[in-house]
Amino acid sequence: MSKIRVAVFGCGAIAQRRHIPEYAANPNVELVAFADPLKERAEEVAAQYGAKAYTDYKELLKNEKLDAVSVCTPNYLHASMSIDAANAGLHVLVEKPMATTKEEGEQMIEAARKSGVFLMVGHNQRLMPPHVKAKEILDSGKLGKVLTFRTSFGHGGPESWSVDGRDSWFFRKDEAIMGAMGDLGVHKSDFIRYLLNDEIVEVAGFIGTVHKEGTDVDDNATCIVRMKNGAVGTLMASWTHYRSGDNGTVLWCENGCMKIGTVEGDEVIVELTNGTVETYKVGAMATNEKQVPSGVIDAFVESILTNTPPQISGEEGLRSLNVILGAFESQDTGKIVKL
Ligand SMILES: NC(=O)c1ccc[n+]([C@@H]2O[C@H](COP(=O)([O-])OP(=O)(O)OC[C@H]3O[C@@H](n4cnc5c(N)ncnc54)[C@H](O)[C@@H]3O)[C@@H](O)[C@H]2O)c1
């Protein structure tokens, strides 16, 4: 079988740390071309994989024969690049947040539908081993109904992650549109929807720029959310957890409590009301410092190979984005927003 020919738009941190190495490790993929306005950045990866470098993704689309692309660029470019690629008949794996508005998200889904290509969103939290285990336990029913929860994602901010450090687009509102909420909050809105197999129907958001200087994007958010089945919980996103970053979720259920990613070494802990405590060592959550394969790229390739729609679809990405957009609306209006 011929290999899937892939191009990557944006050659920054997420491309270099996950998309490119994970494509390179997949025997069914050929990395064909890279685009980044910083010529040397694109050329460096292109040389490494015997691929072509472009500064303009539109030129790349015009010149190369491809099957799929990864969109790993600043948030404001996700929609236009994904739509151009879909219109060119290519499968698209776009990073989160999939878009910056509901309308953009809908246009992306429509473009993919019209071209008969797959649109997948890089919500890798779903595939992290502790989260896979937690979902398996919750789905088993032994904890009963989820009553209340907290889910949180915080670290010291993208200055130590982005290829451009403190000068990164992450801090420029016209390119990022959202700060910690678009970076981290959307991971948790997606994860909690997925884990609980339920939808967030109401959100109240307290969002602000609490500590980062020289930026007007949000660096902290605390939201209260209500699920369709009645559970209520909090969702936090922070770029100011300078120590003790948090990527944990705790569910309090009818029959006990499940702690996910709260204790190093015991990634999932189940404390049942009958007194039993179960601990599961299933491998750590990825952190900015310690990257582990995301599994997202292999899942995308598998979808294409088997002609099976991706589970982390554009529709899923949009529902998770809408929670974050609702939280901003709540912050702006001072009201609880119904979704
Ligand atoms: N799934 C995850 O866990 C995860 C983690 C980090 C970032 N991300 C997402 O990935 C995306 C990229 O973030 P990053 O951390 O790699 O940022 P980054 O700052 O490290 O890299 C962004 C790259 O995009 C390039 N770029 C800018 N304009 C471009 C254009 N017109 N065409 C092509 N390339 C262009 C920049 O030059 C830079 O090399 C963001 O949307 C971010 O939210 C996802």
Descriptive overview:
The protein has ten helices and 15 strands. The protein has about 350 residues and is of the alpha/beta class. The chain has two domains: about 5-125 and about 295-310, 3-Layer(aba) Sandwich (Rossmann fold), CATH 3.40.50.720; about 125-295 and about 320-339, 2-Layer Sandwich (Dihydrodipicolinate Reductase, domain 2). A hairpin with a 4-residue loop joins strand 13 and strand 14 (about 275-280). Helix 5 runs antiparallel to helix 10. The radius of gyration is 20 Å and the shape is globular. The mean pLDDT is about 95. The structure holds nicotinamide-adenine-dinucleotide. Nicotinamide-adenine-dinucleotide binds next to helix 1. The site of nicotinamide-adenine-dinucleotide has 29 residues, from helix 1.
Keywords:
339 residues; alpha/beta; Rossmann fold; Dihydrodipicolinate Reductase, domain 2; 2 domains; six-stranded parallel β-sheet; 10 helices; 15 strands; 35% helix; binds nicotinamide-adenine-dinucleotide; Gfo/Idh/MocA_Oxidoreductases; Putative dehydrogenase; NAD(P)-bd_dom_sf
Helix-strand string: EHEHEHEHEHEHEHHEEEEEEEHHE
Number of DSSP strand runs: 15
Structural class: alpha/beta
Radius of gyration: 20 Å
Give the strand order, joined by hyphens, for the main sheet. 14-13-12-11-7-10-9-8-15
Proportion of residues in helical segments: 25-40%
Taking the sheet with the most strands, its summary is: 9 strands, mixed
Shape: globular
Helix count, DSSP H or I runs of 4 or more residues: 10
Termini separation (Å)?
45 Å
Mean pLDDT: 97
Query: Low-confidence segments, ≥5 residues, pLDDT <50?
Result: none
Just name the CATH architecture of the largest domain: 2-Layer Sandwich
Classified by CATH, the class of the largest domain is Alpha Beta
CATH superfamily of the largest domain: Dihydrodipicolinate Reductase, domain 2
Q: Which molecules other than protein and nucleic acid are bound?
A: nicotinamide-adenine-dinucleotide
Number of domains: 2
What is the fold named in CATH at topology level of the largest domain? Dihydrodipicolinate Reductase, domain 2
* Strand portion: 25-35%
